[in-house]
User: What shape does this take?
Amino acid sequence: MRAHIASDLKELNRSAIYSLIRAEGEISKAGLSRLSGISAPTVIKIVDYFRSLGILSEAGEGVSSLGRKPQLLRFEPGSALAVGAEYDGVHLSVGLVDLAGALRGIRRSVAPPDLRELLGSRLAREAEALIADAGIERSCIKGIGIGVPGVVDPARRSLRQAPLVGVEESEDCGPLLDALERELGFPALLENDANAAALGELAARASGAARAPAASGAGEGGDLVFVELGRGLGAGLVLDGRLRAGPRHGAGEIGYLVLGEGARGASARAGWLEERMDLGGFWDEVERSGSPSGASLDRVTSLLALALANICSALDLGRVVVGRAGEESFGEELLSRLRAELGRLCPLEVSCEAPLEPEPGVRGAASLAAAAWLKEAFAG
Assistant: This one.
């Protein structure tokens, strides 16, 4: 086991104080020391450092029944923002998110199914326009996170199994991301879209602002599966409050599940479940007529319920959240049918819900970029 060194302790202390400040909104130095257990001199140094970053400001005097009134510090979530982008090969949503997770602006556009074109020019233009529309100083923007449908290795900056964005085999996205960083002037990172959305939804539920009542066993410990129901099918798995990506970054690729007798002719290269759900045809109906046909709803919900019943039973998951990239909720009827099917198939009680967060993919992608900046700040 690696021994902790002074730089590790500094980073841990800064992270602990930041978490307290973010949670409390306003707090004194004495309060920070008392709640964190970190010595007062260390707290003073951290506070001074955070003030230099703009994360903290003076908030005036607090209330005290005895002695001197404490000087309060205020968390400044607008001092640093990140751009979050969600791209499904048809739609592009780009938003600005502050340190409290609040959306400060969003732009939507139609985008071609070509990741190279998106990273090469289109995304930079949309991000620049977003920043200009919001009137935000460029120095406040700390990074951009990009959610895409496919298997993403964030460390290697690679993408595979992403036909919806023009990547059939494997793509080294490093050179494209490097060029994007040079154009924008801040770091860029890539993540699976469903993973990003799961993190965005988890953050919304953890904030307590609009927490939904949980069914018995429905993820009280921070468990959920976030289903991204676009023209492809993917899921983000959150277990014990942490994203489960897997050692090969393929966790949640439920479109590749094979079920029933039809699996005999399946290919490992094709998404068996995704093909049979025909989500492209499903959303074409929605765009033409405003809603899917009953037959399409039956097809999609029956197949998706089979997959989710297996996942929830195997992992003891009690909460399913179903969302779609860049669109309003697809309606209660799909969720109602999915609940009924899950109730029939799954021996466990499972809560099936629409997202609480209006833009979970954008918020989640931005949070990853903000977390990368904060990690550097805590270590700096």
About this structure: Residues 209-220 have pLDDT under 50 and may be disordered. The domain at 79-196+361-379 is CATH 3.30.420.40 (Nucleotidyltransferase; domain 5). The chain has eleven helices and 16 strands.
